[in-house]
Protein 1
Amino acid sequence: MLSVKNISKIYQSGFNKLTVLNNISFEVAPGETAAIVGPSGSGKTTLLGLCAGLDRYDAGSITLYDSLLSELDEDGLAQIRNQHVGFVFQNFQLLPTLTALENVMVPMELQGALNAKKKALALLDKVGLADRATHYASELSGGEQQRIALARAFSNNPKILFADEPTGNLDTETGQKVEQLLFNLNRDAGTTLVLVTHDLELANKTEHIIRLKGGVLV
Amino acid sequence: MNGWWIIKMAWRDSRKNRSRLLFFISSIVLGIAALVAIAAFGKNLKQEIDNQAASLIGADLEISSGKPLTVSAHKLIDSLINLSQSHAEEHQFASMANFIKNGGTRLVQIRALTGAYPFYGALETSPAAAAFTFLDDQKILVDKTLLLQFNAAVGDTVKLGDLNFQIAGSLINTPGKTVISGSVAPTIFMPLSLLEKTGLSQKGSRINYKYYFRFLDNYPVDKLVEHLDDQFEQLSLRTETIASTKENTGRSFTDLTDFLGLVGFIALMLGCLGVSSSIHVYVKEKLPSVAILRCIGARSHQTFLIYLAQIIGISTIGALSGVILGAIVQQVLPWILKDFLPVNVRSDISWSAIVQGILIGLSMSLLFSLIPLLSVRKVSPLYTLRIQSNDRLSISKGDALKNLVYLCIIIFITIFSRFQLNSWYQSIAFVMGISMAFVVLYGTAVLLMKALRQYTPLSWPYVWRQGLANLYRPNNQTVMLIVAIGLGTALIASLFFIQGILLNRVTLSSSKNQPNMVLFDIQSSQKDEVAALIKRSKLPVLQKTPIVTMQLTAINNYTLEDVRKDSTLGFSTRAFGGEIRATYKSTLDPSEKITDGQWIEKSMVGDTAKISLDQSYAKRLKVKVGDRLQFNVQGVVIPTIIGSLREVDWNRMQTNFRVLFPLGVIDNAPQFHVIMTRVPNDRVSADIQQLLVKRFPNISIIDLDLILSVLDSILDKIGFVIKFIGAFSILTGIVVLIAAIMISKYQRIQENVLLRTLGASRRQLFTITGCEYLLLGLLASITGIILASIASFLLAFFIFEASFKPSISVILLLLFGVSGLTLFIGLFNSRSALNQPPLVVLRKEV
Ligand SMILES: Nc1ncnc2c1ncn2[C@@H]1O[C@H](COP(=O)(O)OP(=O)(O)OP(=O)(O)O)[C@@H](O)[C@H]1O
Ligand SMILES: [Mg+2]
């Protein structure tokens, strides 16, 4: 499903070169759940971004669902994301001018799916927010926003879901609810899951833990 | 991906921003309105001129001559009379009218008429029948403004020359005359048969001889004129047909509407600049959404199209509102311009003007929006993963497409102004001027930011430093605001300055100690008597000048004939046509400066006279010092050599001459005299006029104060027209200013709330915002005023050939007005950040 081989990422700022990731390799099998853990600044977000095709790497190769990411152009990457990838972000990232329902519909609409609205309503029901369908992000609490984001992430039936500290902005209790929802949805859909977290407890619930420190695997 | 989804997304995405988007786009409404109104008006005007051309000229053919017809000219006219159905003859000249009842006198335009002129259209009189009976009744028609001025009525007596006439009717409207042209010299129609008896036909001043012809319908008049063209030219006869009237009148009014159109276009450009700056900020705010969409898998062109669709949508709404407003404004234009128009203009809706307005408005606003909008294509989805402020999502530079858009804008503006100005040279100058202004303002803004960053003293209070820092910190609007405010100010200042230049020219000539009354057509035998009479009335004789009329017959021994045959000689055939009024004297006036050659005071017997030419006249003739000119002075051929060139100040109220003879050449030629004096007030003016006209009925008197006040009112009217159209720019400028500052509100609001949460007082926040906008407004308006001063100076120097001194009051007004307005709107906007509870603002996602 996801295969990372000898990945390096270097940031150039001025004359300084900063090697953020150095020679990272791992694999995630279809249906597997994996967690990327490590201290702040260790490169977790960077790694996740690279795996999801949001950024370009400087060395190595990443294969996502049979596609070598470095061979695709921006639109090619966009298509992969739209067809096979779901995202959950630490800060939810709902489109502020769209209602909850519309936010969930967008990935399906992008695919040109026919019954987007029906599916979106069903997903909202699953995350327990069917009654908030016409609300805007600013009218929802953080936990509710993240549940909408979860519904959106699953709306295009992704093969793989990337989550960057999905509970990082939530209190423990709400965080656990969202966590539960994430794993449930994931199990139901049989999706591969890669999540970034500080939370070792959360990481231990996954089948595979990738530990980072200072840009290298430990 | 289907377009429907794009439109749906555009619609959804705009949901929370619609009022703002509409506000952005309102900047272009006024510009489009002005363009549509002027284009539609111009079209209707052209249409009316075409429709009414026949009644503008009043005949199928008009032939005019500046001197009595020669024998061969008479033959030609007679042959035309034979060809035509009917004809009329008119002698036109300036003379004094003396209203017997109350003794009022005024210089009028006398049109001595015989025949059924006009053949098309009508003299509109009250009573209406007077127009048809006055010739037979041997009465006159008097312009209604004259009757009003002298409180006269139909039936009263007016003395023209030696003869008394009864007023048959008040002249309300004459074909082809505008209110303006009538107000300078009001018209009196009299029967030509009585001209002889008035004694005015012997006048020294010029009489214009006119012959009007009516031909059978469908007679090929223009072919006939073309056929006879050589003869007309040889005989110095000018012709005018319905077709040429159509063309000439049409052309001069096309120039007018084109000019007004350009002023309207400036409003549109200013508005587009506003749109561009608004969209710039809007797009920046939208970048996170774009990143999310990209993350979900939208392609870059899809996200771009979503926002393009929004812009097209609001631009269309803006253009349509502009068109509607334009249709309303169009109803007003004929009324505003009515005094300048020879025809009544209807206010029909013009579809072509509407389509043109929509197209121009849409393409301009799209082009200007594209500059910021293109950045949407370059947003990376990576931004979703990192919490960061908008400015990190910075807009990439050096985008080739963006440069293409810039190029398109420049081409678009150049082509548009080319159509308005009808000259590539002028339109390129126009575009260069605008671009220069843009560059200067841009540079000013950049320099300001650099300077503030480096030189803001640390010792200043925190709130000042914070306010000034707002001008260069990320997300600042400094460049956009300075460019928009600066351009707006420059435009408004230029309008004021140019009006000042025009008015200045008039007031200059009416200043103290300069003559304000001119007596002309004085015969040699009368000149001493007239001067004595003036002195007896305790008035000064400021100038006494003889005038000799003559014609140029050869340049360097080439006659008109030679010049016509051989165009390589480089002289214009026109040089030979007109009548030249020359004078002779020994000493030059202080206002005349010799620029080349030498002035010789007296010509010795046997010498060829060394004359002096006005240098711009010499330029027009394409002659220089040493060239030979030959004149025909009423039958006598006089050869001369150009001895010197003079610079003449035509702005001074005095008799100025293109051709100046030394003493001893034309001293004894038939001549008439001009005397100038200064009268202290209207009462004295009326008295002396009455006295003079009674004694010397042939003398004409120009009351300069009267003329100047007429000119003043004309300029007032012109000024009003310019201001009316200019107001569209001014209002647009204000809308843009408000829009630009409104936008920055969305950016500053979070920050202000944060500061307030940290404990900043309202006063401190006010000071911070105040510092920021005051400096912005001051700098932008100062730069704008400087730009306008430079532009006005160039215009004054090259176009109006007048001096330019910027009016301090205008400068102060604009300086305080513009920076005050900027400050006010800035502070007014920050109000919501001060009055709302911080929580509301923090939750509100903009
Ligand atoms: N655009 C950039 N330019 C330079 N350095 C960058 C850039 N983006 C990230 N970095 C650096 O890369 C390193 C890894 O960043 P990354 O965001 O991946 O860390 P992280 O493990 O996700 O940390 P956290 O747990 O705090 O989110 C950090 O040191 C960061 O400063
Ligand atoms: Mg991170």
Protein 2
Amino acid sequence: MNSIIEFKGVKKHYKIGEVTIEALKGVDFTIKKGEFVVILGASGAGKSTILNLLGGMDTATYGDIMVQGENITKYKDKKLTQYRREKIGFVFQFYNLISNLTALENVEFASAVSKNAFSPKDILAKVGLTDRANNFPTQLSGGEQQRVAIARAVAKNPLLLLCDEPTGALDDVSGQSILNLLDELNRDLHKTIVLITHNAQIAQMANKVIHVRNGLVDEILINETRKQVSEIDWK
Amino acid sequence: MKHLFLRSLREVKSTLGQFISIILIIAIGSAIFSGLFSTVTLIESWLNDYYTSTNFADAWVYVKPADVDQIKIYQNDNPEITIEGRASFQLESVLKGESVTYRFYTKTDINGLMLMQGTTNVKDNEILIDASFAETNLLELNDEISILVDDEVYTYIIKGIFHSSEFAYKSKDFSESISNKKGFGIIYATPEVLSELNHHSDLYKDALSEATIKFDEAQVKLDDAHQVLIDQQADLDLQKAQIISAYSANLLMMQQILATLVPYQKLLDDAKADYELALSDFQIEKANALSDIENLTTDVFELLIKGKTPQIEAFVISLETQDQYVNHRLRKDHPAFTMLDNVLSPIKVMTTIFPILFFLVASIIILISMSKTIENERTQIAIFKALGFKKSTIRLSYLFYGWWAAIIGSIPFALLGNYMIPRILMAIFTTRYSMPPVPFKIYWSYNLIALGLSLFFSSIAILLALRSILKEIPAQGMRPKAPKSTQRSSLERWPWFWTKLSYTQKLITRNILMGKVKILLSSIGIVGSIALLITGLSLRNSASQMINGSINTYKFQYAIKTSENMEISDLQLPIDTEIIERTKIFAGESEDLSLIVQVIETDEQLLAIKDHSGKVIEMKDDTVIITKAMAIVFDLKVNDRVDFFIDDVPYSLIITNISNQYLNKSISISFTQADSLGLEISTDKFYISTPSQEIKQAEVDTLLEEPSILAVDTKIKYQDTANEVMKMLNSIIMVIVLSALLLSITVIYNLASINIFDRQRELATLRVLGYTVREVENLVYAENYLLTFLGAIGGLPAGIYLSQTIARLVSSKEFIMSGEISPLIIALSLFAGFFFTFMTNRILRRKIVMIKLVESLKAVE
Ligand SMILES: Nc1ncnc2c1ncn2[C@@H]1O[C@H](COP(=O)(O)OP(=O)(O)OP(=O)(O)O)[C@@H](O)[C@H]1O
Ligand SMILES: [Mg+2]
């Protein structure tokens, strides 16, 4: 199977006054269609930076990021928006739901911009929130909010589902149910998922684990067998 | 303390845009406050000084001719008041080809002059002239003025140029609403000059000719009597001679016969003596009468009075009982006094409304933006408290922020307002007046009050914003804020409506409905802005109504004045003409207010007087048109009776039409009607239209060369005076519209940028979801438009109320503003309001484009 994503010598520099911070110092990796990829690394290693570049929320300073054969680092703002609109589903640590829209409306709102979107109601059912569809975000628990966020990301049927520490703000039980949900989405809908975490256990459910340290890829491991969430020893 | 101070400075830096806009609106409030109050105080105190220094009269009393002795008697009989007599003479003349009116006075202590140039000591061929006349006619010191009176030319040298408080508003007969700087010259001269000129007064000439006729008749009788005596003497002498020649032989006989004639001779001699006596009596009487008439040239008709009103009234009554009284006018009714008051009243109106409006908006903006800042810093505040800082210290830290804005905004701009606004307003309002330059001043007290108000309003806003946060206990503050329970908006109860909305529309609706307080507050700014726009436009509309109704309809090109009364058929005009119409103007009076009665031709076409709907009123023999201004002042309608006096003769007419003139109080009637009322209708004024319908200087010159034509005024001259008023109003309207612009931009910009800052995370989320910048912009813009719409709903009634109030306050007896509001005005104001919002949205674009996706989403909620 061919890779749909390829990072080639990607560098990201932040300039703060006189000082230049090298967040990424030359990152290379590939991701294949339908893979469940976990990016692992310590705080400040550059994980989020990688994800943001991949999600078209920021642009690389050097290097190429190929997505389905197109170099998105060459994209201008307009094309980048279109790229996000059509190909990317983003899940954040802090949900970022729109507080003045209900759960269902949040999902509908996102799917409205995509051409081959799933039915928002179906997706909401998939994340198990049919009966909370008409609640506003403030009326939902953190775990429920994250489910809505995932439903929102998935609903527009994106090429990539990017999750930046989706369980970071949740307790173990709700965190695991979120991971279960992602696993299901990967297996049933064949969504390519990139998930960031600094929890090494989570890596066991991935096809591919990319270790990041100090702005560089330390090593890339391929899991021969993926573990189910329930099979993982969480202690 | 030092840290809190530093913190407030950094806070300024991090919220620079918001800080600047707060400064801006405080600056406007302060500038307007100090500027308007300075203007009012400046004008009031300066006017007081001016009236005091020129010894402005408390009353003008007009009496039957009074000589020096008579005035002495008045003065002795009324020691509580100061009485001074003043001789005057008015005549129509021509200066540089244009008709002018000169009024001559003798110098008095009351209504003294403020000399601008030259000297007040003048000889018999020298005069003083008023500054505005000199300026507009380009006359200078030592220039000569020649005046033709009854074929005699008098030439005077200008030795002094003055301002007079009495003629601050130069209006010939108080019926003109537009002051007449160029066409009306006030001249002060020696009593000898006045007396010399008064030999040409109608009063003198009439008295003289009447006396002359009488004396001539008497003389003829006397001469006849004398002739009889001479004839009789001749008879007698003849008889004597015959007797002497017949009786030359008989001397005795002759003696006897002659003796019989002696009694006859005696009778005759007696008759002669009687005649001589009568003759000398007649001559003495004639000489006396002539000297009485001669005295008319030095008698005065006008008394200037200083004193308290009750004493003045008492004096007036005593004059009435002595049958000496003609008329009087108190200071409060004098145009120089009321007109200047008219300057102040609109400024005073603005003084009460504008600064408060701006300060209020400033404090609302500070309140909203500080509430936001403080909410974002809840945790910080909780930490401060946990660290053991006192509430007062925390308050102070935030107050510093507001005080910075107050100080930076208020001090320089209050001073600027104090400097600029009186100058601008004086320039606008005093163009109609003839006054010496006003010395401008800095009023520290107002600047301090402006600063105080800025500090007060910003402090109140900040304390209000801090109130609820400071009540929390520290632990509460460090926990995330309890979720504001999101509720369905009431609109959602109508699903047939709600389901039709797009997500964007739903979002906007909920955003707006859930921030009710914010909406209410922000709407106040927009309400104010729309209200100001409506006011500005409606004032302009009223003003153009005034001008259009008065002048722009005129169809004539020239108004000429001939050297004597003429019929149209006698006119010898050296240019091509199309229509010639006569006109005649009488000064009238009704309910103690002066008005003019204009007599015009039946079926006249050159004035084209229009009614309220813009239709030309047909002038029939019995048409009586009154102006709208007059209808309002006297509360008259069509078919009402209008009563008025011309030269103390009462007249009463039934109104048939009301014209759309808002400027003058006048009654227009036909020559036929005037004739039947017994008015003298021969005239020397004519309106002329030419085939080309254009005003040409060459034609004016040609007309002026014709000896029978004294003066030619063009339609432009009438328009100029009207445009002066228009210019003044335009400047006020500019100020109002500009304030509206500033107000709405500051308000919308502030609220929207707070809104954007507030919802950065949400907007960034939208961007990440793939919404384009344009789509996100539209969301924010739509909210602003909706806010503008809501503000407009409140702004309409506010604007209608405001413009009618201002129109009422600005209107005076001389000057009527209708304050009418047409749908066009409302449409225009709404358009402008939305246009301002559109402009603000343009400015906001940058803010939206600049939202950084990664950073905005990283922050913890
Ligand atoms: N906007 C920015 N400006 C400057 N430096 C930045 C910026 N964003 C990230 N960095 C720096 O880049 C490096 C990588 O940051 P990144 O957010 O990718 O780390 P991370 O691996 O996601 O860490 P964590 O697990 O804590 O989220 C860090 O050293 C960080 O300080
Ligand atoms: Mg991270």
